[in-house]
Each structure stands twice: as structure tokens, then as C-alpha cells.
Amino acid sequence: MELKDKNTVVTGAANGIGKAIAERFHQQGARVVLADRDQVALDAVAAELNAKRPNSVIALACDLSTEKANAELVENSKKFLGFIDLFFANAGVGVGSDLSTPESVWNTAFDINVHSHRWAVKYLIDDWLAAGHGYFVSTASAAGLLAQIGSAPYSVTKHAALAFAEWLSITYGNRGILVSCLCPQGVNTNMLRSGDRTGAGANSNVVRVAGAVLEPETVAEIVVNTLRDETFLILPHPEVAQYVAKKATEHQRWLAGMRKLQHRVLDI
Ligand SMILES: NC(=O)c1ccc[n+]([C@@H]2O[C@H](COP(=O)([O-])OP(=O)(O)OC[C@H]3O[C@@H](n4cnc5c(N)ncnc54)[C@H](O)[C@@H]3O)[C@@H](O)[C@H]2O)c1
Fold this sequence. Notes:
Elements: E1 7-11, H1 16-27, E2 31-36, H2 39-52, E3 57-61, H3 67-81, E4 86-89, H4 103-131, E5 134-139, H5 142-145, H6 152-172, E6 177-182, H7 190-193, H8 199-210, H9 216-229, E7 233-234, H10 239-249, H11 251-266
Helix pairs in contact: 1-9, 3-4, 4-6, 8-11, 10-11
């Protein structure tokens, strides 16, 4: 899909990867609804983009961890955009660690990393099927294809996000619905920077040693180029494809290698 004159929604658009994607979409000529719970940062992005092209962007501050909030986001986005050509469910949280992770943290991880995708699609799909087109893009992670050392909730919810996107593509792909899923390794954002060696922060150390840490703008450029081809998997770190192949064909060795990496970084 070419983004010029397209009507788009980007969640998690106040910071990091979502902000860079929203800016890139806008630069390509799209109208963009920016959604995030971080209202101050969100309004700053909206002001910056509307200064470049008046009335091309609105900011909708919302906490997307409920079905109601996602339904309202779709409804309010349609008031501004009319038909939504592309919805990018990118907001996510890197929370939780091991078996001691509280239930409330597991629930937060599922609500935002998985259920928000499902809830958004629930309110998008009727319009898309009636029109015979619509593009759903989500951000999972390389952790959704491989694993996240140090965090069971992140690992599990990112697998689930990828599984949902695959299911969507299989179920509706023959009726004009396009689906892509962004699966990066390390990206230089608050999520990665905020870590230390405990809890979710331990994950960032693992991510740093696992490979290159890309800038969000680099990821956004790769996203736009991949959306042009309408390819399902968006892999800013191409080596992830090799790791996935190894995981599939030499699973025992892959697990042993992951244990070694864990020992090196977390001393477990
Ligand atoms: N940074 C990385 O290394 C990396 C790697 C792979 C995948 N990801 C994924 O990329 C996505 C974007 O993360 P990022 O790295 O840009 O981090 P970030 O923390 O900079 O951005 C995440 C954004 O999501 C928003 N958000 C979180 N919970 C929300 C909620 N309940 N309602 C509305 N907004 C909410 C935050 O306010 C924030 O603006 C996430 O899904 C993350 O899991 C990140």
C-alpha cells in the first residue's frame, strides 16, 4: 500500500517506534490519528505534524487496555478520517519477569499487547469487509517469533500478538484484508532505555547483546517500504529470519543457545 492520501491510525504514537511511524506516514502524505495514553507527548507530536500540514492529524488520548477504549478509538477516528484505510496497533508494554510476576501485570501485558489488537479489529472489520479492503498492522516483536529471555509475560504475549495477526491474515486474506506484523529486535526507545538488570529491565540487557539496536526512524522507514510490498512479516533485523529457521529445524540446539545467552547476560 502506498500511504499518500491514506487514512491511518497509529497507537503508541506519542513515543518511540509509534511516533516515528506516525511521522513517516505523515511525510508520505497520509492523514493520521495519533493514539496514546501519554497525552503531553502525544499533543506535541500532533502539533508538530499539523504545523507541517494543517488539519492532517488529530491526537486522541486514551488508555487502550479496555475493549471500550478501542471501540471509542475506532469510532472517533472515523469521525475525523471517514474510512480507515490502515490501523497500526503498535502500543505495547515490556512488563513482568518470572513466575513471581503478579496477576495484575500479566493482565496488563495481555490487555495491551494482545487484546487491544483483537478489540480494534472487532470494530474495524465490518467496514473493511463491506469495502473489500482494509489493512491491519501490529507490532509484536522478534520475541514473538523466538523468545524473550527474562520475561515470560513479554514472550507469551508477543507470541500471541503474532498468532492473532497470522490468524487474521488467514481468515480474511481472501476477502481483501491485508495484515502485516512488525517484529524487531532492539530499538532505541524508552522501553529499551528504561531498563536495569532487574525485572523488565533485564530484558533490555538481553536485547542489547542479541544484536544491533536500531533507531525508531530506521524501523519506520523499513515499515513503510515493507507496507508498499504488503508483506506479512516486517523484519527490521533480517538476521531474525535465520534465527527462526534455526529454531524450526534445530529446536534443541536453539534452546541450548538461548540458555547460554541467558547465563551470559542474567547469570542464571
Ligand atoms: N524497543 C524495542 O526494542 C522493541 C522491540 C520489539 C518490539 N517492540 C514493541 O514496539 C512497540 C512500541 O514500543 P517502543 O519501543 O516504541 O516503546 P515506548 O515505550 O517508547 O512506546 C510505547 C508507547 O505505547 C504507549 N502505551 C503503552 N500502554 C498503553 C496503553 N494502555 N494505552 C495507550 N498507549 C499505551 C506508551 O505511552 C508509549 O507511548 C511495543 O509494542 C513494543 O513491545 C519494541
